[in-house]
Each structure stands twice: as C-alpha cells, then as structure tokens.
Write a structure and sequence with these properties.
The structure is a homodimer.
Chain A lengths: L6 H24 L6 H27 L4 H5 L3 H10 L5 H23 L5 H12 L6 H12 L3 H26 L1 H7 L6 H22 L4
Helix pairs in contact in A: 1-2, 1-4, 1-5, 1-9, 4-8, 5-6, 5-7, 5-8, 5-10
Chain lengths: ~220, ~220
C-alpha cells in the first residue's frame, strides 16, 4: 500500500501516539499515590482516556499503511526521559503533573490542528483535542491543599517550573531533530520568530494554569 | 432509593471493582518495563480493558443505589498489600504477574458467576468474564525468554510461587473478614470442605498456567 502522508504528518502522529501511551502508563501508575478511591478514580479515568487517544492514533497510522512502532521510535527517548526525570513524590505533585501535562498536550493538539494538510488526520486531531482537558479536577484539589497548608505552595510552584522546564528541554530536542515537524508546527514558516511566538503562547498558557492552581509560575 | 442487593453481592462487587482498579493501575505502571513499543502496547491494552471492567462494576453499584467507595473500602488494604508486596523487578516478572493475576481473576469471576442471585449482577459478571484472558500474549514471550536463557526459569518459577502465595494470603484475609461473601463463593455451603475444593480448583488452574509458561509451579 502506498503511503499518502508526508514525513511531518507521520512524525506528528508518532510523537502524539507515544506521548499518549507514556502519559497513560505514568499517570495510571501515579494513581497509586491517591489518598482516596475517588481520587484514584479521577486520575485513572484520565489515564484510560489517554489510552483511547493512543489507540486511535495507532489505528490511524495502520490505516494509512504506516508501522506505528517505526513512527513512534524517534520519540521514545525524549518522552521516556521527560517522565524518568519527573517522577512525582506525592499525590499533589502527581496531580500537578497530570494537569500541566494535559494542558501542554491540549496546547500542542491545538497548535497543530490548523496546519495538518491531511483531512482525516486533522479530523482525528480535532477529536482528540475535544477530549483533552480532563485534568481540571486537579485544580480544586490543589487549591484546597494549599489552603489547608500554605507552606506547600513554594515546593509545588518549584515542581511546576521543573515540569515545564524538562518538557521544553525535550521539546527542543525533538524540534532540532525533526525539521519537517518543526516547520509544520510553526505554521510553515519555520523561522526563529515563529518558534519564539510558539514558545510564548505555550509559556503564557502554562502561567495561566499555574495561576489557576494558586501557584506562582 | 432502596438497596436491592444483599451484603454478599455488594461485597463481591466491591472486591471485583477495586481488584480491577488496582490491577489497572499496577499493570499500566509495569508497562514502563516493556522492552519494545509493541510489548508496551500489549500490556497497556490489557490494563485499559481492566479499567473498563472497573468502570462497569462501579456504574452498576451506582445504579443499584450503592456508594462504590463504601463498597470497595474493605478491600483496599488487602489488594494494595498484595501489589505492594509483589512489585515486578523486570519485564518478565511483570508479564508473569499480568498472566497469573489475569488467570486468578478469570477463575474468580467463573467461580462466582453461578452463585450470584441477582440477574443484572450475574449478567455483568459473565460479560466481564468473557473479556478476561487477555494476558495469553505473555505465554509466548515468557517461553521465548526461557529458551533464550534457560537460567531464568528458576527465578521466574519462584516468582510465580510468590505471586500465588501472596494472593492466597490476602484472599484468606478477605474470606475471614467477610462471611457472607465466603459463603456465596463456596456455593452457599460455607463449610471447610467447600473452601478446600475451591482452593484445589484455584491451585490446579495456577499449576496449568505455570506449565503453559514453561515453569514449575
């Protein structure tokens, strides 16, 4: 079967699919930190939704005649490294990681949605985008924890900074190694100004999320 | 709303639901040990199916006017303890845990399926039972690993013994604390002979599974 998709679109599907698969596995594992069954339920349900996103991206690659494992392979190291370097030490750190990670994923789907040429791939990305944002339950929990013990806010703010810092380091690494993908993501221009504007949008959104949690970004 | 279900059925739904939720969370976490994306996919897909079982059991409890958290609460300690005491040290141990755990769960659903009086609950248990057995992919992988390095067989056989030993210790603890559930599970007789026959069936099946893996039980 002939492959219709260009390399940038294949790379995009690969990074999104492996991103969902690792997010699923780490979040589901972090659910063991939950202090109650209903907390565990909330994080586990979010992880299960991420597996469903992964499955749809994986199936789409197969439908398009692309081996999913080959498409995901270049993104295994940076995504594993991000998670290996950011294991939550407790439930609150796990919640913040879920919320910040879900937010970054939502931003990423939103950024690329407009630029994907292939209609079927774009449709899938919009559908997954519509199903993100499930981590909003974290906001009330984190705010309540800070109200109960204001001293945790400093540690959690640092944790949020670390998460976004590690995410940017890995994103930078992916961008350097995948020109076609980077060009697509900055709207076809691929210039430094485009990358700068993209980073500004991502960090602005991250700041807004940290504020929603009651934390300095 | 009036609760229709008797305590044994509520206990059963509670232990099944929390069993699926913890299996989901631990298996999904163990997927990080996978040596390849396709291995990760296989274990993650099995974990996602377990979340779906959990969700259905949870929804059924709500439909029947029972608070799921209350129903699951008595089983949190034994199930968490089982998993806390059996963290896989590598991918093969994770695979065996998935296979042995899935097998024990299948046996358990099969044992109770006949004895649940409530038709809606029995129907749900039969549906979940039909969706178990997803860990058979583990058999070929474990056998191949033993062929490649026969020296691992001894360690893995011990691991299988530990898993079933820890499972029986926790099952015993649950049985002692939940008379009504135990009576239901041994077919209403509740006598020692019935419990003995049940344990014989469970250990016979475990032996068969260990043989399928190429391991002494």
């Amino acid at each position: 079967m002939t492959v219709r998709l260009d390399q940038a679109t294949i790379d995009l599907l690969g990074v999104l699919a492996y991103g969902e698969l690792t997010a699923f596995e780490r979040l589901a594992g972090d659910a063991r930190l939950a202090p109650s069954i209903s907390d565990k339920h909330a994080l586990a349900a979010m992880a299960a939704a991420e597996f469903e996103h992964y499955r749809r991206l994986n199936d789409h690659l197969i439908t398009e005649g692309i081996d999913p494992e080959t498409a995901m392979a270049p993104f295994v190291a940076p995504l594993n490294e991000f998670h290996d370097l950011t294991p939550p030490n407790d439930w609150l750190e796990g919640l913040i990681k879920a919320y910040v990670g879900d937010g970054l994923a939502t931003d990423f789907y939103r950024e690329v949605a407009a630029f994907v040429q292939d209609a079927a791939t774009r449709g899938l990305i919009l559908e997954v985008l519509a199903d993100t944002g499930q981590a909003s339950f974290a906001v009330a929990k984190v705010r309540a924890a800070i109200t109960a013990d204001p001293a945790v806010a400093g540690r959690l703010a640092l944790w949020g900074r670390r998460l976004v810092g590690e995410a940017l380091i890995q994103a930078q690494r992916v961008a350097v190694e995948h020109d076609a993908l980077t060009e697509m993501l900055v709207g076809g221009s691929g210039d430094l100004a485009g990358i700068g504007r993209l980073l500004t949008r991502l960090t602005d959104n991250h700041t807004a999320r940290m504020q929603a949690l009651g934390l300095q970004s």
